[in-house]
Design a protein that fits this description.
mainly alpha
C-alpha cells in the first residue's frame, strides 16, 4: 500500500488537554504546601551561601515541587525528570501546567547541591510532615536524608599507567639483573 505523505524527519510534539482529579494525592499535596513560606525559606538559605546573586534566580516553585515529588514518591533525579515531563499530576505539583518548560535531572541535582544539607533538610521535613499528616505518604518508607558522599575512585590515566608499567619493569629488571651476575662470572671463567 502506497503512503500518501512522507513521514516527518522531526519529532512532532502533541498538545493534549488533560483533566487531573482534585482528589489526586499530588494535587492535594500541592494545595496543602505553603509554597510562599517554603520559597522564602530557600531564598534565605541561598543568600547565606552566595556572596553576590548572579545569573537568573532558580525556578523555586518548580524545583521545590520536584524535590517534593522525589521525597513523596522515593524517586531518583532521572525518574523525577521523566515523571515531571510526562505525568500530569507531577507537572501540577511543580507548577508546570501552563508551560512547555521542563526540568532536567541536572537542574534538580544542582538545586539540591546549592541548597545544601540545611536547605534540603528544611524542604524534606516540611513536605514530609504535610505528606504524612494528610496521608499521602507512608512514614515507614520515607527517609529525609538526601546527602551522599562521592566515592574516591582512582581512574586510570596515561601517567598512572606509565608509572605502574615502569615500576613493574624495574622490579623485573632487578630480578633479572641479580640472575645475570652469576652468568657474568661464568663468562669470565670461560
Amino acid at each position: 500500500m502506497a503512503r500518501r505523505r512522507q513521514e516527518s524527519l522531526f519529532s512532532e510534539n502533541m498538545q493534549l488537554r488533560i483533566t487531573v482529579s482534585e482528589e489526586h494525592e499530588l494535587v492535594r499535596l500541592s494545595k496543602e504546601i505553603d509554597w510562599d513560606e517554603l520559597i522564602d525559606q530557600e531564598i534565605e538559605i541561598r543568600e547565606k551561601k552566595i556572596k553576590l546573586p548572579t545569573g537568573p534566580q532558580p525556578h523555586y516553585l518548580e524545583l521545590l515541587g520536584a524535590v517534593a515529588l522525589m521525597a513523596v514518591k522515593n524517586l531518583t533525579y532521572r525518574d523525577a525528570e521523566d515523571l515531571i515531563a510526562h505525568y500530569a499530576p507531577a507537572r501540577f505539583l511543580c507548577g508546570l501546567t501552563d508551560t512547555d518548560w521542563r526540568i532536567d535531572h541536572i537542574t534538580i541535582f544542582e538545586f539540591t547541591q546549592m541548597m545544601g544539607e540545611e536547605g534540603m533538610s528544611a524542604i524534606n521535613s516540611a513536605i514530609l510532615k504535610i505528606a504524612v499528616d494528610k496521608g499521602f505518604a507512608d512514614p515507614s518508607r520515607l527517609m529525609s536524608d538526601t546527602t551522599a558522599q562521592e566515592a574516591k575512585i582512582p581512574y586510570p590515566n596515561e601517567v598512572g599507567l606509565m608509572s605502574r608499567y615502569a615500576k613493574i619493569l624495574g622490579a623485573k629488571l632487578k630480578r633479572a639483573g641479580s640472575g645475570l651476575i652469576g652468568v657474568r662470572e661464568k663468562f669470565k671463567e670461560v
